[in-house]
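Lab meeting prep.
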Amino acid sequence: MSVSRCKTPQGRPVSTLRGKHPLQGAMHPTTMRVAVLSSGGKDSAAAWWWAMCRGWSVEALVTVVITDDDSPMFQIPSTHLVERQAKMAGLPWIEVRTVGQTPHDLAALEHAFGSLDVDGFVSGALRSDYQKSRLERMAERLGMRSWTPLWHQSGHDHLKGMIDHGFEIMMTGVSAEGLTEKWLGHVLTPESFAELASLANTHRFHVEGEGGEYETLVIGGPHLEDRLMVDGTVHWDGVRGHYEIH
């Protein structure tokens, strides 16, 4: 995607990306070389676009692929599809396979970032101090910088802004009261987002899914030149479920 397609106020990809650019006010702004820590979901997509809209050079997408059933820090569903997103963007994809235990996961991720010739990495951390603090300490050990442009933004405005700016956000996993199997494989629209926001208010869950209420896959958007064509099967146990993409 060319930077000229970032047609938003002050180059911000979504309305909630407030605050100064790290180099704002510099006499000679530097083009940063960054990697994007990407799960394929909405938050890492927004962080990716944020970097592109600043004219930074995105050198690679890095994905932690969990081989076990759980992880306190990283998304599990559909992460293998980041490879297809990377191909669409003409970027290298670095797969970091690990077991879902934070010390092992971070050690493997640190090794991957350390192998790259970049100034730092961008991630979609929104509210998790657990995630943000560990990424920042990793960056410090590597002599890099860690950027989290979504940090503490309004979840409602963040998600609504992405939909309004053309991000196609598919729900691939749900595990919150009020979210049924009908949401699995659904691509959010302004109308369904309003319904999601109402359910979040009624059932008291995070509308942006920050508490693990649901997982997402971005199949299209302004950061991509094409659209992922996917098909899948709904798996539902009566309480939670996931959309298995073929």
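Slide two material, second protein:
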Amino acid sequence: MTSTARGAGRGRRPGGPDTKGEILRAARESFAHKGFSGTTIRGVAAGAGVDPALVHHYFGSKDDLFLAALEIPIDPRAVVPEVFADGVAGAGERLVRLFLSVWDDPVTRLPLVALVRTSLVSEAPETLLGQGMLRMVLAPLRGRLPADEADRRVQLVISQMSGLVVTRYLLGLEPLASMPADEVVAWVAPTVQRYLDGPLPD
């Protein structure tokens, strides 16, 4: 047996029929246990027994891998910028309407509920949800806000929207759980808008 033949059996395996599935399995485990910030392409590759280049080949960036591994049905990077395309004015209503259109759809809601539940039991929930999904959702917003106010305003928006997720979709508290979307918008959007551009407390 030649040295080349002997070497072929060692090291990381090349791509195969189930390579993509193994990468996704390793990514799910890593995101669940280490959160978003603690997960690396190299670490996922090691967990799947493949070269990091294969992870990039199949999934591109870590953000892309995150969306694929957790089966997020919508790419926030593609739709959220439209909410803020015309500036902050009126963005509260546009954001809440987009949010409800995604979460009220049973097809898209299931994997999102799974993401939230995974975040709650994750060893690093703040990075899985905060640095993963919410970072992608609200990244376009930060550039629209004054730099010295952006963190406070964005975090207040997160508090409102995450509270809506828990009460309407996870706990199913009535009457909010079955409230028509237009009524939810009427209640919630003004608060989100105030967080975006309302006067700061003294």
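Talking points for slide two:
Residues 1-11 have pLDDT under 50 and may be disordered.
The two ends are 79 Å apart (CA to CA).
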